[in-house]
Structure formats: C-alpha cells, structure tokens
Amino acid sequence: MREHEFQRHYYACASVHPLVNISHIRVSTFSMEEGSDFPGLEYSCGEDLRRISMVPLAYTYTNFSIHIPNNYSNISHLTPLHHQDSSEAEQTCSSVWDHEFNTHGFSCPLCCDPSGSHLSHCPPVCCSDGLLPLTDLYQFQSPMTASHAWTPGGAFQYHTSSAEPCDSVGSITSAEDEQIFSTHESSRHCNQMDLGQSVQPTCCPIPPDIETVGQNKDSTRSFSENSKKPCHCTKSQCLKLYCDCFANGEICSECSCINCCNNMEHATERHRAIMICLDRNPDAFHSKINSSIEGVMKRSHTRGCNCKSSGCLKNYCECYKAQIMCSSMCKCVSCNNYSRSEVEKQSTVEMSTHTHHNTTQCTANLSCLTDTVVKATCGCLLAQAEEVEKEGLSRVQAERVTLEEFGYCLTQILVKCCDFLETKELFGAAVVSHSGILLNRESWCS
DNA sequence: GAGTTTGAAACT
DNA sequence: CAGTTTCAAACTC
Q1: Start and end of every CRC domain (predicted)?
Q2: Looking at A183-250, which runs of residues are DSSP E strands?
Q3: What is the per-residue pLDDT across A15-50, written as a single tens digit (0 to 9) for each?
Q4: Residue A232 CB closer than 7 angstroms to strand C?
C-alpha cells in the first residue's frame, strides 16, 4: 500500500540561488495519462521554488520541466550541478532533505556532499522521485560556471514501478531563450548512460516528499529563514493546510506550535497528511500565486479570494496579502482591492468599442448590464409592447415606440452607471471589481 | 497579551 | 456543491 502511494507522487526539487529571480521560473507538468498530449498543465512555481525548493507534482504528473529564462543577468548566480555517481548519491540519500541556503551556496544531501565541501558546485535543480541522474547534457553558459556540465547526480527514482525507468529520466536541455530542465525527453537520454544501478529503488526509507528547504540549523542567516514565519498552531499538529509551514512545504522550526508533527520525527504521519492533502487537491502545495512573463510580470491568485468583510484591504485577504489585485477568480464582496486605472481603462475601451458615447465623461462600461438590468429592460419593453397592442397602433408605429422605449432604457442605464460611479468616487465605496463588474447595486434599475 | 475578527480549510 | 465548523493568522484594544 505504501509503495502504491509513493508511486503516484513525484516531486521536483529545484534549488536556485536566492539572487536569482525565482518568479521568472516556470514549471510545466506533463500528464502521462494515456491519450494526453504534451505539454500538459503548466503552472508557475513562483515562490514555491524559492521557499519550498521541492515542489510536489500532482500524482498524475510524472514528467515536468523547469524553464529558467536565460535573459536574466543574474542567471550566472545559478551554480552548476556537479557530477556524482549513483553510489555516492545513495550514500548521501537521507530521509531528511535538508537544503541549506547561505551566502555561499546551498546543498542537498541527495546530490551534494553533506559536509559542504561542494557548496560551490551544488545543483540549481535537483530532482527526486521519478527522476534519474543524467550526464553531460548541458553546458551552462555563464562567466562563473562555463564548461560545467549539468549532471543532476544523486537524483533518484523512487518506487516508480508503474512507469518505465526511462520515462522518468530528468533531462536538461538548452533552448535559445531558456534553460529547460525536463523529464519527458527521456528516451534519447537513456541510451547515454548506464542506468543499471541508478534505476534501483532508492535507499530512502521515506520519500522526501515536500521537505523543507533552508532549515538552517546553525546560526547562519539563511535565505529561507528570512522568509519563513514561525507558526503557532495548537490543534492541527501542523499537519493540515491551516499551518503555513506545512502548506508551504516546510518543516516547522523555531515555531511555537503545540503537538507539532511537521518534522522528521513524525515523517510517516507527515507523509500521510501530505497524501491526504494531495488526494483532496493535487494542487494543494502549489503556489496560489500565479506569475507569467508577458513582457510585464502579472501575478494573480489561482483560486481567488472569498472575502466578505475585509474589503480585500487587510491581510486576511490572500490577494491583498500577496500584494496583488483581486481578479475575476475572486468571489469577494465589496472588493476594494482593484486598480481604478485598470477599471477605467477597460471601461473606456469597452465604451469606445461598443458605443458612441465618447463625449460623456462617464466611464461606466457595459458590465453595468447585469442580469437584473437586462431583465428590468426587457420588462419595460414588454410592458410597452402590451400598451401598444392595447392602443391598436400599426406595426411601424409599434416598432418606433418600442425602439424609443429601448433608447430611454439605455439612457437610464448610462445615467445610473455614471451616478453610481460618482457615488463610489465620493464615498470611496468600491463596488466595482477590478474586472469592471458592478456589484452591490443590483436593484438600482428597478 | 487577551480577546475578537476574518477567511481558508476541513468537514458534513 | 452548499452550508457549517474548525482553525490559525490578523487585527484590536
């Protein structure tokens, strides 16, 4: 049973030097389910990579790739992978995946010398669970590290009985604009190396799951220490997503939690809890904050918030806390966390596109046309039509009167929209979501 | 620091 | 899937 559980979960561990802008790194996952096409679901790790280091991939994803754009000047801060054979890797494999960041580098016991002697040669990306060591696939192009070969030595396959070994081989390829660390280009690489020993199940008694990164046990200020906040859980044993440490894939350290099981002393319980969370939501450990590179960095909350009382202007709101605007994904009420300029920009575009009311200063947009407004308008037109029918007007006259009524309705809608926005301006009562949808005034047209 | 508010997560 | 409960962080005093 346990093995069955393990083979469904794969993790990618991507450790990148703190100076690298992690938000520019994307991780793509590829479903290996029959009939699926590459590429599969793509998502952004964002802070996942920086803070967690090990990103759990949903159990249906057995392949993934990590894209690191090359056009970042500080990319040279990525340190190359050092070469390491599997036997050495096995020796360093431990149930504790303890990455340590410091000003000199970082280490991973799966692929680095735990003594730290290889700190300057540790991998920017190392992989476990479903990934196998590679050899000489990529020459890192940087002044610091030129000619170093990217060889994710020490990467392991972990009980992947359901997958062919080669299907799980990680690969690192070079593209013009980005470095791609991938797992799905496995077949051609399989021939390049001797998998005889590497494919053996690892010596890990416990899968590394989403172990913490940067659990600095000494006094050195580590990268993750700077970002990790101690939790104060009392009832969840730090094994539910209520716990920020657990949710961030970190092990509790220097927390003031009670009955904490989010540590390696309770690895079994912790792993079980992770499985439960992943079963409930395969994206449970993915960052809730999406980021994409589209010339300008845009960030958004993947699920959106559901705030009701905070106006999305307090840290209760996950969007606000992440310093991003609420989006159409949000179901918040009375949202104030939106960009006025964005709303007005969108409104202006829609007005110029759909109407000829450019002379008006009203920036209300067509999103004023809520269901309620449409129903009310239809009701007016229907009532007008009934009146016309009673009066026995000709068809032409009836059409003209009905159209006049329709024009009147449109005028009223625009006036109400303008009035509404002005009221919002005066009282600062934001009732417009950033997507331009008017809220909280459903009855204004009735 | 205690108590309250808040909204996500978990549960039913 | 909607409503309710639990939980811990955020906030207030």
Answers
A1: 227-340
A2: none
A3: 333 333 334 444 443 333 334 332 332 333 333 333
A4: yes
